[in-house]
Design a protein that fits this description.
This protein is an alpha/beta fold. It has nine helices and six strands. About 35% of the residues lie in helices and about 10% in strands. The strands form two sheets. Strands 3-2-5-6 form a four-stranded parallel sheet. Helix 7 (about 170-175) links the parallel strand 5 and strand 6. The radius of gyration is 17 Å and the shape is globular.
Amino acid sequence: MGASWFEALKDEFEKPYFIKLKKFIAAETAAHTIYPSMGNIYSWSRLTPLDSVRVVVLGQDPYHDVGQAHGLSFSVLPPTKPPGSLKNIYKQLQTDYPNFVPPKSGQVGDLTPLASAGVLFLNTSLTVRAHAASSHAKRGWEVLTSAALRCVASRSTERGVVFMAWGLPAQKALAGLKVDETKHLVLRSAHPSPLSAYRGFLGNAHFRLANEWLEQKYGTEGCIDWEVLSANKKKSVA
């Protein structure tokens, strides 16, 4: 775990729920294949230090197929093709920023550049058994990730962050935290899954709205370069 997050969450590691969770994960690891790999469970914390968070994208369960999950919600490592939810995220990025071209090669589904730029891609549950969706839900991860979200929401800075709550589970998780919406911006919509994206995710303008709000709070330097993943931007940089 990244140092800033370890310091913020260290009290959680001695609590009964987390000790029980560790035993559960150890037993699961001994008997089954678990995703993401042990070294990647906390990659979100290393890529996005607590004091760098400006946007939170809250997911649910890690991807549960081979070569997908690596510790960031919605993100996959190459050569894995982007799942349907990520394809719809790219579609909305292109709507908000017409110059954005969805990547077609290289780091096609890897959201690490955005995580390094201050976007916290956090799942409410941090592990899953291979090919068994939600198999590690309600085992204790949600308590830890709720504590992580409270750390973000309660930072001493007065400028706040943007929370993107896609789908009812994410919205309920944030509702449980009672996020101060006079300080933070909460953007709600349907989930980007192909099953629900056309019921309100596509067309939500969340990426543009986030930057408009961040510019007011942080100035232009505080905006997220959502186009960092764009195929044409990578080409021009090269």
